[in-house]
Amino acid sequence: MARRALLILLLALGCSLFLPVGAADQSAVSPTDDEYYELYKVLVDTIDQVERNYVQDINRREIVEAAIQGILTKLDPYSSYISPEEMTRFRDDVEHRFGGIGIQISVQNGFLTILSPLVDTPAYRAGLRAGDVILEIEGESAEGITIDEAVKRLKGEAGTSVTITVQHPGDDDPIEVTLEREIIAVETVLGDRRSDDDSWQWMVDPELRIGYLRVTAFSRDTSDDLRDVLEQLTAEGMRGLIIDLRFNPGGLLTTAIDVCDMFISSGRIVSTEGRNTKPRTWDARPEDTFEGFPLAIIVNRYSASASEIVSACLQDHDRAVIVGERTWGKGSVQNVVELEGGASALKLTTASYQRPSGEKIHRFPDDGDEDEWGVTPNEGYRVRLRMDEMRQLVSYRRQRDIVIFHDADEDGEIDVDLPPAEDESTPANEEGADEGDPDGEDPDRTDAEADEESEADEIDEEFVDRQLAKALEYVVSELQPLEAASRD
Length: 488
Known about the structure:
By secondary structure, this protein is of the alpha+beta class. It contains eleven helices and 23 strands. The strands form six sheets. Strands 3, 4, 5, 6, 7 and 8 form a six-stranded antiparallel beta sheet that branches. Strands 10, 13, 14, 15, 18 and 19 form a six-stranded mixed beta sheet that branches. Strands 1, 16, 17, 20 and 21 form a five-stranded antiparallel beta sheet that branches. Helix 1 (2-14) packs antiparallel against helix 2 and helix 7 runs parallel beside helix 8. The longest helix is centred in the last third of the chain and has 22 residues, at 466-487. The chain starts with a helix and ends with a helix. The model is unreliable at 9-29 and 408-457 (pLDDT under 50).
């Protein structure tokens, strides 16, 4: 009884702390302090009754966390509670950096399989290959292991080591490898395909000098990496550019703003407004702008949040033509509010985005196809892929991303080891993310953020990426008048 009385006393003394921001100015429509006290008393009574009388012992923290999660579930799909156990992974997702060995992994037929090493990481330098099966981690069998358990065992502080036993495809005997963990920075800016030295090729059409790059998420390093690539392409005489934002779940608002600022020299980038937050606006600056070439952006139904901010901004400023499918429609802002001194956190929706035109991006539950939300491709450039084409696209791109192990035989010929087709997977990224929180997994799974993979169809030798072809069609059409003018 004393415990329940103490909880109620705390609520009575501090209930005003729980009032919504600005509630003092809304007394005519908001509950009084007494009403808030009665409501919180119901919550305290419920927790007290469960803890005292439920048929089994209940962990007090689990009850409170369940209550928090229940409150946030009532709000929207993007507000959530981040428990102490989830905080490390949450920070890794934000930074796209973690302590590990640098591999993308999946579980195939009960075996932990390497999809690809990441370039210039401990795994890459040790010669680990796509298709390798990890049999043991620190002497313990990895057969039947879950992705989450594998992540826990492979991750660790930089400078520590981990020993794994690996079976190369086609080899009779497994090998034991000890790797020293490093800080792994996950690539978020990718090219069209890899060169023989595993670097990216950034020109999708070298003859016409049309660049192509994919942005898989908006992390803290994305804008710097993107600028480096654009400077390289500019030095190589780039005449047109395609940016692929398909499957991009979002990321940091600040990074999306930086990316927009690279392509427009003035005008509104994005604005936000909320019930209890001050309206904010971001405008472009004239410095260091990449202009003077046609730009196409490819999006699909899984492009969300920060990727929608970028595509909407450049579309509204007539800087880019949008090709592909209508985007996801995730235009809400989540602020991360630390709890328990940073041990846990709330991810709370506090505002929504408006594109430069003033139109909203967010799709609310009662919005239909005819309503304004998301980013719709420019007229004549809508290309919707069938689901079988979507699976083919994922497999096709995955194959191009793989870091291939090259092995020279006695005659100097290069043998290329590729993982079997069934090792391919379909990344399902349907939720976007915002300020400080990529709310949705990166399409490129790593040993810090992989999920159980599902099989995808084998690649059709005649597969054509119709969305990329349409984007190329636009860029080429814009270059033709320039070529004619130069001949005259």
